Amino acid sequence: MLVSIFFSYIATTAFAVLFNAPKRTLLPVGLIGAVGWSVYLLMRDYFSYSSPLSIFCGTVVLSLMSELFARIYKQPVTLFTIPGIVPLVPGLPIYQGMYYMIMSAYSIGIEKLIKASMEAGAISLGILLVSGLFRIFKVRRDRRFVYSRIKEQ
Hints:
With 153 residues, the chain is an all-alpha fold. 84% of the residues lie in helices and 0% in strands. The termini are far apart.
């Protein structure tokens, strides 16, 4: 388990370098990816939750961390989120699904592709949930600021 967490850190950091992230953000970006992968493994292997639910929980945690680190480092949230989800992307089920479809094993192929779709949907829902909540709180805070300025005049 520790080896896979280490390699998720390396993969996340490598994608951050690929996206030209500032050097001072590489450590937190790698940490975000490793924590998201750790939550996924913990939920799937130790608590025996389904893979899509485990991916959703890992994505929620890494999205929360991305929002917080984006504010700390004054960088866009996508700089932290996109590399962070790389270890969670269901690449193997997509490959296997396409392979079985090409080999005319349609029922297995469809099963793999549906599983991959559910996992990809879990990733997008996790990011959507957290970014939506942060946007709601930001809008409320901005409105209070605007209302206080209007009342002063």
